[in-house]
């Protein structure tokens, strides 16, 4: 699937920029409650900008499966991220690759998701009332020994300055960043994106981690 995802993309320019620096995936947030929300009508140029270069991931929060299907089929998005409280029955109905976001404190919360129908988990810091993009970091040491039985993605509080240490400490299969490479919510800083991707790529290469 991917090793490095730049999430919360809100413009065609930022999508193209992230792909040009080597991002494996970009996240487009269709959750209306997000500061990085993108209407479906505005997402097509972003998807087109990375086609053949990076994987576009549709991010949804507690959305109806038929709405997810409509959005992703219209935009030709093949990977979805479920970032809310979606029950397994919702994920089961989707005909795409699925990432289930789990908001954790020490990783023990994953036990409740052992049979969840998805291809990968994304671990983000638990913040009451929020569904990601908060910039709060996980305790990497506490989750370093996690083996959820599926590939997992580290998110939460990552930056160009700490992503290498985070990968060494927690040993994820991939990383995800939004606020850590922004100037303001939804607007990516090219240099932060560039060096986040560079530092993460180098650390994954050292660890022998390939794309999930």
- Cα(first) to Cα(last) distance is 5 Å
How much is the radius of gyration in Å?
A: 15 Å
CATH structural architecture: Alpha-Beta Barrel
The chain-level mean pLDDT equals: 92
Assembly level: single chain
What is the succession of H and E elements? EHEHEHEHEEHEHEEEH
* Beta-strand residue fraction: 15-25%
The number of helical segments is 7
In which range does the helix fraction lie? 25-40%
- Briefly, what CATH class? Alpha Beta
Strands, total number: 10
Structural class assignment? alpha/beta
Unreliable parts: none
- Quick one: overall form? globular
Could you give the order of strands across the largest sheet?
A: 1-2-3-4-5-6-7-8
CATH topology group: TIM Barrel
Summarize the structure.
This protein is of the alpha/beta class.
Structure description:
This protein is an alpha/beta fold and 212 residues long. It has a single domain (4-207), classed as Alpha-Beta Barrel (TIM Barrel). The chain is 31% helix and 21% strand. It has helices at residues 12-20, 40-50, 65-75, 88-92, 140-143, 163-170, 190-207, and strands spanning 4-6, 25-29, 55-60, 79-82, 97-104, 120-125, 152-154, 174-177, 182-184, 187-188. The strands form 2 sheets. Strands 1-2-3-4-5-6-7-8 form an 8-stranded parallel beta barrel, surrounded by 5 helices. It has a two-stranded antiparallel ribbon with strand order 9-10. Helix 4 (88-92) links the parallel strand 4 (79-82) and strand 5. It starts with a strand and ends in a 5-residue tail after the last helix.
């Amino acid at each position: 699937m991917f090793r490095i995802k730049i999430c919360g993309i809100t413009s065609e320019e930022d999508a193209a920029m992230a792909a040009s620096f080597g991002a494996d995936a970009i996240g487009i947030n269709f959750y209306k409650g997000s500061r990085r929300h993108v209407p479906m009508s505005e997402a097509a140029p972003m998807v087109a900008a990375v086609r053949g270069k990076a994987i576009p991931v549709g991010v949804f929060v507690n959305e109806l499966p038929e709405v997810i299907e409509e959005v992703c089929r219209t935009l030709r998005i093949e990977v979805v991220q479920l970032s809310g409280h979606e029950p397994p029955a919702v994920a089961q109905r989707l005909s795409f690759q699925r990432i289930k976001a789990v908001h954790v404190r020490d990783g023990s919360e994953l036990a409740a998701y052992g049979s969840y129908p998805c291809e990968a988990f994304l671990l983000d810091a638990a913040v009451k009332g929020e569904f990601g993009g908060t910039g709060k970091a996980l305790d990497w040491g506490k989750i370093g020994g996690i083996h959820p039985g599926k590939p997992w993605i580290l998110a939460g509080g990552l930056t160009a300055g700490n992503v290498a240490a985070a990968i060494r400490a927690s040993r994820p299969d991939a990383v995800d960043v939004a606020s850590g490479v922004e100037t303001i919510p939804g607007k990516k800083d090219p240099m932060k994106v560039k060096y986040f991707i560079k530092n993460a790529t180098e650390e994954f290469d050292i660890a022998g981690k390939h794309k999930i």
